[in-house]
Amino acid sequence: MDRNLQAGTDVDVLLIGGGVMSATLASLLSTLEPTWRIEIHERRDGLAQESSNPWNNAGTGHAALCELNYTPQRADGSVDITKAVTINEQFELSRELWHHLAGQGRLTGGTGFVSPTPHMTFVRGAEGVEYLRRRYEALSRHPLFSDLEFSTDPEQIRAWAPLLVEDRDTDEPIAATRAAAGTDVDFGALTHSMIHDVVRRGAALHLESEVTRLRRRKDGTWRVTVRDRRWNGHTRSRTLTARFVFIGAGGGALGLLQKSGIPEAKGYGGFPISGQFLRTTNPAVVREHHAKVYGRAEIGAPPMSVPHLDMRVVDGETALMFGPYAGWSMKFLKHGSWLDLVRSIRPGNVVPMIAVGVRNLDLLRYLISEVTASRTARLRTLRQFVPTARERDWELITAGQRVQVIKKGKGGGVLEFGTELVTSADGSIAGLLGASPGASTAVATMVDLLERCFADRVEQWRPALRQMMPSLGGGTWDESFELDRLVDEAFSADHSA
């Protein structure tokens, strides 16, 4: 991207979406280029109201310590840990950046965004036990997972997580792994804290500000039309030019990428999946479970529907969540339009979308069964994890929308369950599609964006990036550092000033 053609633009960087992705990129760029003009535009009336909201996501920090879909079993019975290692390394980058920001006194929004929470995997049946044993043996040989524990002893598992074992049939084989160094992350609180910091450093935040049009100009800059949503019933828009545009709008990113007209966005489609969780705040139940526990997905279920029982800490309050129970909606955002899916259809993505639909009939049947499931059926699923669960202790909540990526591929199209960064050839615009692991690997994704979109500057940025994230330069990070303690110190100092 040629930075010599950018004179006279209104902003250097325009970020669309007020979630953790925009917050992370804004934090990096405001550090690397403190004189750049940065604007953040969020269509809602507050930050982190979609996927970054703590009740709209799994939230505990995907580090591959317990998620079985990152460790598939090969045909010969061995376990492939490649993806787990990658995800763990990417999450470490996130922790390093938070460490750095906290040490600089820049995370002043509170101490509740990260809490120590062991990560566990729990399986039932002889086949499940054997798979988990092989997974443990493969992972524990790697330095990143050397502290992983494994047990088939019900009493040991009871000591780790009593609710998993209480009143369970003793004839059924069970097994669990435990990583004591796991965390629970409130990405909503983190987003607020990071954006508060970049605004304090000079960035501009615009709420209820919806980007409706993107047009690339001949000089490579972008002409962006923004509608002020605060004027109900009236059209109040403005236009501005930007050197670089990032579309971090969650489910809204696909439509905006399509409006941009960049050829790199052609052929992409989206498959929306919603979710629900059972949640309890009953102190008697909550105090019996201090862990994030993942199980195995049902046959035909998407990876994002892997059942898990999580301890969550949100705004200082502790709760337990179980789910997700998959659902389906034509909306691409929780607060989106019922026409989102229809509006996303283009000549270039019709074939991939049809191909994916034909080849994923098991997924469609699974979604239908989930949508029509009764309260009793949901409780029955919960009792596979918590045999003593009582209906009156749990409430059903609706989580966020996830738009899984559909793109051209073998057989006409493929359905992806990860995240995908789409960038223009000249590096002037980028957008993020997809879902899990999402927020947990936001830092690694945004570093990838810097390398792809700012190739002319990234080498001069590397010393600063390595200072923020030592492992980028081949160094190591002292994980004995207590992130919550340092944030608390920064917060206290800020409020005593």
Estimate the global geometry from the Cα principal axes: globular
| Spans of at least 5 consecutive residues with low confidence | 1-7, 479-497
Tell me the helix content.
25-40%
Strand residues, percent? 15-25%
Q: Total domains, how many?
A: 1
Assembly state of the chains shown? single chain
Query: Can you summarize the main beta sheet?
Result: 10 strands, mixed
Question: What is the CATH H-level superfamily?
Answer: FAD/NAD(P)-binding domain
- The CATH C-level name is Alpha Beta
C-alpha termini separation: 42 Å
- Secondary structure tally: strands: 20
How many helices? The count is 14
- Overall structural class, as computed from helix and strand content, comes to alpha+beta
Catalytic activity: (S)-malate + a quinone = a quinol + oxaloacetate
Cofactor: FAD
GO molecular function: (S)-2-hydroxyglutarate dehydrogenase activity; L-malate dehydrogenase (quinone) activity
EC number: 1.1.5.4
Walk me through the structure:
This is Probable malate:quinone oxidoreductase. The structure is a single chain. Helices cover 31% and strands 24% of the residues. By secondary structure, it is of the alpha+beta class. It is globular, with a radius of gyration of 23 Å. The longest helix is centred in the N-terminal third of the chain and has 22 residues, at 82-103. The chain has one domain: FAD/NAD(P)-binding domain (3-Layer(bba) Sandwich), CATH 3.50.50.60. Helix 1 (20-32) packs parallel to helix 5 and helix 2 runs parallel beside helix 14 (483-496).
